[in-house]
Structures are given as structure tokens and as C-alpha cells.
Amino acid sequence: MTRKLQQNAADLRGINQLIIAGIAGIVDLVEAMHQNIAGVPRLLATPKPARTTGITRLVYQSIRGVVGLVGHGLDRLLAQFEPLLGERSALAGREAPLAALNGVLGDYLAASKNPLAITMSLRRGGVPLPTEGEALTAAIPRASGKLVVLLHGLCMNDLQWKRKGHDHGAALARDLAYTPVYLHYNTGLHISINGRALAELIEKMVQLWPVPLTEFVLIGHSMGGLVARSACHYGARARHQWLRRLDRLLLIGSPHHGAPLEQGGNWVDALLRASQYSAPLARLGKIRSAGITDLRFGSLVDEDWKKRDRFERSGPRLAVPLPKGVACYAIAGTIAKKGGRLRERFIGDGIVTLESALGRHANPKLALRFDSSRRWVAYGAGHLDLLSRPEVYAQIKRWLAAPA
Fold first, then answer.
1. Distance between CA atoms of residues 52 and 173, nearest Å
2. For the chain, which terminal residue's Cβ has fewer other Cβ atoms within 10 angstroms, N or C?
3. Are residues 84 and 169 in the same domain?
4. Cα 393 to Cα 371: distance, rounded to the nearest angstrom
5. Average pLDDT, rounded, for the chain
6. Which residues of 236-257 are buried (b: 16+ CB within 10 A; e: fewer)?
7. In the chain, what is the straight-line distance between the N-terminal and C-terminal CA atoms, in Å?
8. Do 25 and 154 lie in a common domain?
9. CA-to-CA distance for 147 and 140, rounded, in angstroms?
10. Which long-range contacts (CB under 8 A, 24 or more apart) does 50-53 make?
């Protein structure tokens, strides 16, 4: 009961902080629209950021002040309870909505130190693994020398690898004696931030693994595949030992060259900004996280976003090749039942196009050089079906059972 109360207090504090920021943002939005509509009506005029004046401005300032006093007072009250109610614990039913919230607002949650922000960890059964040798051995008493780390996608969590009764990691443990470990991370952060943090985390994990490693595999679904590639990039820069131990990298439905939904969302931003009346609404589009905007082109490194406006429609992207000396595999899905090339290319799995998932690109510098025998397409499969389809697992098993 104590743990439940403590977690509820932490969640309420986090939600309260979002409410404060959300109401303040809405007040700003309404004031901006008020100012633009009150001005000279020019449909395509560039909007001016100035606030209202006179008594109108006083009204908006008063609203902001009341929201801040009430909200922050409640936040301080809830903060009093959190340290008194014991150690934080996960409650059933909160993992999925928390993961979705982090996917959409995770960068804001982390920057504002909101208790709802997810901290990266490697987990089993939803429980973080220790980072000390003896404790890790006790947490995985039957660890094998074959380690597989699985990375989930945007707005998801490690428990969601299990879908329709199937979990690729658990199946590999049963059939090929792998020990699965699952990454849990804030998908709203920049992919490069998560990639660098993962590289450091894996370096510690590999050094502390209870038995000598004979095989090491990374499997990433959707954004997880991009985080895995980013980790390989930063692991190479830091000369980490784990990258030399990595045997295979499997990328499932990963948007290596971007996802159409984020690309479309970016065009909506541009259209909204075109008119002084709709320009304030473009702020709503900018609520989406850094992790989501990274999916526009599949950005993996800091250079793709530092000192730039991440909401701009275009910009140079640093080419990040597949890691050297690692057997790399790509699985793509398409909801098309049969293989018409144009149809497959434009439809894909409903989230990621076929070309993007297979790493193909018109620019040779950006194209990923998967061997033809290490590319595979699942027909009649949506994006999440790639987690549960028997034929997808059969292909993963076939690749991992064969010599690299």
C-alpha cells in the first residue's frame, strides 16, 4: 500500500506539472490568436510574435499568474509526500500510457525534471537489472553466454515486445538458448542522446555479464533499430569493447530514411505558419518530441540537430553506415498481400515504407549496404505485426541459427 501511494504521488506530481505547462501554453496560444485577429487582416502576412497590450494584456498576465500559484502550490504539496512514502515501484497498467506520454513529450519531461520522465535501463520482466557484478549474477542466475538485447520503438516499452502471446526474446531463449535483456528508454529524447547513453550502458553490461560471452546480438524494432545504430556509432567513437563483441544487428521495421507520418506532420507545420490567423496553431505541432522529429529523416547523430531548428523541413543529414565487422539484417513489412513494387514502396507497413526499412536510398552515400541475403519482407504485415507474426520470428531464428 505504501509503495502504491508513493507511485501515485509521483505520478500526480508529474501530471500536475504538465497541467501547469499546458494551461500556460494554451493561454499564450489564445493571446497570440487574439493579437493576430485584432490586427490588419492579411491572409499570408508574416505573423508578429508581440503580445496584446493594455487591459487585454493585464487579463492574460493575471491568468498566467493564478495558474502558476495554484499549480506550483499543488506540486510542492505532492513533493512533500513522495520521500515519505517509500521506494518507487511500478504499478500494473501504467507502463503503456507512460511510454506513450514519453514518446510525445519525453524531451520536455526530461528537461523539466518531471517524475514521469523514463530513465534508461536494461530490464527483465519489467524490473531494472543491477549495475554491479554480484547483483547482476543474482538477478540472472541462469545467464547463458549468448546475449540478445531487444530495443522497443517509439511510444512503447520493453513489456510490449510480448504481443498476441509471442515475444521474440522469450522465443529465442526457448529455441536457441539466448538470454534476452530488454532496453527501457524515453523515446521522446533525441535518438543520438539515447544512442550514446545505450552505448555506455551496454559497455557496463558486457563487462559485468556473469559468464563469458560467446555471442552478442542487438535486435531493434522501429525507432529501436535507429537507437541501436546510433549506439554502434557512438560506441565506435568511444572505442568501446562491446562493439568488438557484437556479432549481429537485426533491424525490424526501422525507418532508416525517415517515416512518412513525421514528414507529413512537418508539411502541416509549414501550412499553418503561412497565415497569420493559423500561425499560432503551429505551436501545437511543435509539442511533438525531439524523438519524433528525428524520425523525419532518420537522424542518428548530434550533428543532425544541434544548432538547428529541428522543425525545419529540410537539412543535411550525416551518413551513418552500418557498423563494420557486424552481420546486419533488415526486416521490412508491407500491408500489401502481393509484391507489386510501386505499391510496396508507397504503402509499406503503414508506418514505415519498404525502401526506408530496407535501407535503400537514391543517394549512394545514404544507402545502407545490407547483403541481399540479409534483407527480408513480411507480406500482409502491419508495423506492429512484425512483433508477433510467426513467419517473422521464423526468419529471425533462421538467421541466428546459421553462422554469421
1. 63
2. N
3. no
4. 19
5. 79
6. eeeebebbeebbbbbbbbbbbb
7. 50
8. no
9. 12
10. none
- CA–CA gap between residue 265 and residue 272 (Å, rounded): 11
Best-predicted range by mean pLDDT (50-59, 83-92, 105-114, 381-390): 381-390
Q: How far is CA 316 from CA 187, 288, 304, 313, 367, in A?
A: 23, 21, 7, 11, 15
Reported as a pLDDT band with limits 50, 70 and 90, residue 297 is: confident
Domain presence at residue 181: yes
Q: What stretch of H or E contains 127?
A: strand 127-128
pTM: predicted TM-score of the whole model, two decimal places: 0.77
Residue 306 domain flag: no
Residue 7 belongs to domain spanning: 2-89
Q: What strands, in cross-sheet order, belong to the sheet with 127-128?
A: 127-128, 121-124, 179-184, 146-151, 215-221, 248-252, 327-334, 375-379
Query: Is residue 96, in this structure, part of any structural domain at all?
Result: no
Whether 84 and 215 share a structural domain: no
- Which cell numbers hold the place of 362? 537514391
CA–CA separation, 80 vs 66, rounded Å? 22
The three grid cell numbers given for residue 141, joined into one nine-digit string: 542466475
Q: What is the pLDDT of residues 54-98, one digit of tens each?
A: 554 555 455 455 445 555 554 554 455 444 333 344 444 678 878
The answer to whether residue 296 sits within a structural domain is: no
Contact in structure between 298 and 256 (CB atoms under 8 Å)? yes
Instruction: For residue 151, give the DSSP letter.
Output: E
Q: H-type helices in 280-366, by residue range?
A: 282-285, 290-294, 341-347, 354-357
Amino acid letter, residue 54 = G
> Are residues 385 and 323 located together in one domain of the fold?
yes
Same domain, yes or no, for 139 and 193?
Answer: yes
Percent of the chain with pLDDT over 90: 51
Count of structural domains within the chain = 2
d(Cα 136, Cα 324) in Å, to the nearest integer? 30
Instruction: Count how many residues are written for the chain.
Output: 404
What CATH number should be reported for the domain holding residue 140?
Answer: 3.40.50.1820
The set of cell numbers assigned to 317 is 543529414
Q: What is the number of helices (H) and of strands (E) in the chain?
A: 14, 8
Q: Are residues 253 and 358 in the same domain?
A: yes
| CA 64 – CA 67 distance, rounded (Å) | 5
Asked if 217 and 351 sit in the same domain, the reply is yes
